[in-house]
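Minutes, project check-in

Agenda point 3 was the complex the collaborators sent over. CS summarized: two entities, 833 residues total, and the question is how they sit relative to each other. Sequences were read into the notes so everyone works from the same version.
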Amino acid sequence: MSNTAVKQTNRTVLTLFKDLWEKSGMVVIYIILFIGLSIFVPYFFTLRNMIGLGLSVSMVGMVACTMLFCLASGDFDLSVENIVAFSGVFCAVIINTTGSVVLGVIGGVLGGALFGLINGTIIAKAGINALITTLGMAQIIRGLGFIVSGGSAVGIQKVSFFAIGNGSFLGLPNPIWITIVCFIIFGVLLNNTTYGKNTLAMGGNMEAARLAGIGVNKVKILIFSIQGAMAGFAGVVLASRMTSGQPNTSVGFSLDVISACVLGGVSLSGGIAPIQGAIVGVLIMGTVQNAMNLMNIPTFYQYVVRGAILLIAVLVDKFKETHRSSI
Amino acid sequence: MTPYLEFNSVGKTFPGVRALNEITFNIKQGEVHGLVGENGAGKSTLLKILSGAHPPTEGYLSINGEQKDFKNTRSAIDSGVAIIYQELYLVPDMSVAENLLLGHMPKKYGFVDHKKMKKIAQDQLDFIMEDIDPAKKIKELSIAQRQMIEIAKALLQDSQIIAFDEPTSSLSDKETKRLFKIIKNLSENGKAIIYVSHRLEEIFEICNRVTVFRDGERVQTFENMKEVTHDILVSRMVGRDITDVYSYRPRPQGKCILSVKEVMGDGLKKPASFEVKQGEILGFFGLVGAGRTELMRLIYGIDQKSGGKVKIDNKPADHSSPRASVENGLMYCPEDRKYDGIIPVRSVDENINISARRHYIKAGIFIDKKKEAENTMKFIKQLDIKTPSKDQLVGNLSGGNQQKVILARWLSEDVKILIMDEPTRGIDVGTKNEIYHLMYNLTEEEKGIICISSDLPEVMGVSDRIIIMREGEIVASLNRSEFSEEKILSLALPVDEEKNRSEINE
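CS then shared the predicted structure for the full assembly.
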């Protein structure tokens, strides 16, 4: 009697696991990875390391929320790393000149939003593709960052500003809280609002979305503006953590964000963008990096491993897909 | 004639769906073998098995007595199988010649031999009697011309078995006649030809034998076309008798609901004016390129008109975007469902509610998933949409069900005028009949419908009035009592086109 009950539970656990694997295989992979690392890598599963891990993925996590929308609509944005750098510098300069932290934060975020607005307008109205537009804007923004800062790091004198990035709440550093809140907000936006659903529809079939009466240009401009504002905010948080605005920071960050999303199963061609995918993608990237650091693997090898993980993840997903359709 | 291609107890199961069951029949050399059946009857699955895209779950097929076990499409092509699909697989920015020889371009010293390529392409174009410069880019050709190029491409492989999947869906009458001549020519040369079509007249015109499919089963193969009639075929396909697929019924008409005055824009040669009344189904007939779709795109606001006035309910409705049209109650079901209609990677639920969800917003921004689900379930039931669940991806449904999803999308809105561009293209008889009934029901609720179709019997079957367009202008408007095939065709055909046609008929 009890034997059959055990069998029953075993079966349900197995089917649950199978379901999860089918729907979001990356979550399963991450759980296995996490357990494995906890067992085999000393010091990995400690509170201090977990907090460090959270902190290290917080920047990518924040921007991944909005990049998810870009990817969902079938576009991507290569200028986020430069917005991060610019907004950090811009915020620092404003704080130093006006002495107001609030103005500095607002300036950084609005600056980023403005660049996003320009990106979105060019892409939507002029019909130039996102690769060229954001690549061009990326150069301009990086340049403006250097111009505003005079070419070197801008130290911030206002100590109260540092609380944003270095303070903590209930034992968790603020950037982690901010990232969690962002994921919740954008998850709800994606799944429970017209904005999110329209974004997915546009990525799934742009022309059909337009003919179905969606104001596709408006939505596109909105997506890029919010993306810019978010990158700007991430830049402010980074400046706060580093106590200065650095014009040459975050090189390669845009591609980190995009690869994290893709790793989690977000489609580059648009229309498919699960929020849990972005979260898991960000976590996998960060966790592997963290474990490699703990194991003292040299940086050169870390590049190879990270690239390999991205490719393997995408291949596994592709395999799963073709396997499913050929059953 | 001995059987050349044989299907032996072929079966195919997809997850949860039995697509084909115990199919046994054969195709002979030198015959044109028709395959008919409703959407989802198994014809496409059979073609996919023949093409090597899907292996059968049970059974096997053999060619010339030899059992074949195709691993992929390449091995099928190497065994002499060519399949001409409805969808076009051409590279728009490459020339006709390059497209024809894509994958096996002639080479000289390792480089592409352009001269030879042009020669081969020209010969092939001559063979299909298509007067196109091989140096022209595909994107400069009309849809019908592209279809002919696709056919020419498949014929270049010198295959022994050629399957046509709805080849005439975007061809004009003239091109269809020419295609039939080519097919007859091929069968006389000993090719085994499979011809899949929803247009039964074509089956009678060109096929030597016909096999009927229903629900994944082979119902019957008619060995002699003289023994079978249109009605018999339809009743075998549907499993019940449909005496008149259009089932036209007269309905009362009210006041003018849409008025279009002197509208002008790209694709039109002269300004267009017409009206739609409440309760009316207004047919639009013309050949490919007559400007019907272009005119509707101007009215719906996809393209911008250069002049003219549009009024809905006597209020100005000069829409500059589809969004504005939808808000005024003017909806559009596009001609090309796959590219302009559905969002294949999203669910039935999301596809249906894409527009109407704006009416059920909670707290300013949140969508009401419960209401959306109710709406979806209502239409799945009402329109009999065949889908395993409301969360199924629309890309996995059959063409007829995709069309129903788009209809449901607009029926969940406050529609006043519905423009239906080729409403039943590629859809089986049973579903066609359901869609016509829906159109009648809608107009009985005082809505107006514009029905654009290249299928003359269809326009004549369902319309209360037909507007005929020719080369970018409206040339006539006929009331139902004045309908006749000859009259409509002679109005629609350009003068020189008519001459060409009679030449080909000779």
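Noted in discussion: Chain A is about 80% helix and 0% strand.
Follow-up: revisit at the next meeting once the mutant set is ready.
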